[in-house]
Amino acid sequence: MTSTLALTRLPPEAQALRAPLRAFLDEALAGMPADRRARSWLGFDAAFSRELGRRGWIGLALPREYGGGGRGQLERFVVAEELLARGAPVSAHWIAERQSAPMILRCGSEAQKRWHVPRICRGESFFAIGMSEPQAGSDLASVRTRATRTADGWRLNGHKIWTTNGAECDHMIALVRTSGEPGDRHRGLSQLLIDLRTPGITVRPIEDLTGDRHFSEVFFDDVQLPHEALLGAEGEGWQQVNAELAYERSGPERIYSSIVLLDTWLAQLRARGDAGEAATALAGRLVAELATLRSLSLAVTTKLAAGENPMNDAVLVKDLGTGFEQNLPIAIAELLDASAAPVSDELARTLAYVTQFAPTFSLRGGTREILRGMIARGLGLR
């Protein structure tokens, strides 16, 4: 794996998006406590997403002919960064805009593009990802959910798990087996675009340690789908899903999941006036690491904007970003435990939430073990 990541400077037209977006967020998020904002891209608020769509801030980098803004990936990066940095509740539209719409535009039929993408851009249609399965773990190629061809289309049976917002979404793009057996690995996999209101689909939310129910199990029992449910070419699902994962693994959400906690802690340090040597050193280290990761994420986005598929680079950024996100609450908690300084209720609640939820950061988008195996293959080490 040779890296060609280069420092990128955001163009003026991208930077110009910050001021109006910040003004909107000042009003929209007024009074929202930090522990709620810390949920950010797992904060589901359909009305908030519709308002973003009305203002043209969803689908900014998608083609105008399909309802998008016709701008670039760097402009979208700025919008995503501002939303995440403030802890805006973006979960409703996030997956649909980040990867579902680009995949439909890349692989879908004209009818699929015309029907789905404009609705995504308006914040009216929300998508889930159907990848993980109970017996497969992070071994994505061993999926057992099967779609069998029928006279009328496809008959789908199987089980997906850890489906983000499965109970809230309208559609799912699922990786399924359309031929062969699990032992065939990458051969025989396809993607289906599924209306989650179709008879035979059961969604069961999963409650996590924080009491939230972001994730779900989704069961398919003899679900009848039309021929048009196939996304792209039959048997090309593995190639398609790997292209999709580059979008999932490279975005700023892979470094900003703990950002509201960091900002809340830094605000308390500022309010005290004298942070102390240990806190100052930790703050400097965390901010420096965040700045480096942001530059890497922006460099990967630049590659995506150029039409490249920077899968290996995205995997590397995701692994490094996950480590930062998970280490941040631990470092802050250890410092606070060693200090006699008082802690505000808001900071305590935010720290508790992020600490409880942080273990999931190294699961979503591929576990650390899977990602490091991919990095090793890219380096020729396995």
3D structure, described in words:
This protein has 382 residues and is of the alpha+beta class. The chain has three domains: 115 residues, Acyl-CoA dehydrogenase/oxidase, N-terminal domain (Butyryl-Coa Dehydrogenase, subunit A, domain 1), CATH 1.10.540.10; 108 residues, Butyryl-CoA Dehydrogenase, subunit A, domain 2 (Beta Barrel); 139 residues, Butyryl-CoA Dehydrogenase, subunit A, domain 3 (Up-down Bundle). Helices cover 47% and strands 14% of the residues. It has 13 helices and eight strands. A four-stranded mixed β-sheet has the order 1-4-5-8, with helices on one face. The chain has a four-stranded antiparallel β-sheet with strand order 2-3-7-6, with no helix packed on it. The mean pLDDT is 90.
Q: Which short descriptors sum up this protein?
A:
3 domains, globular, 8 strands, 382 residues, Butyryl-CoA Dehydrogenase, subunit A, domain 2
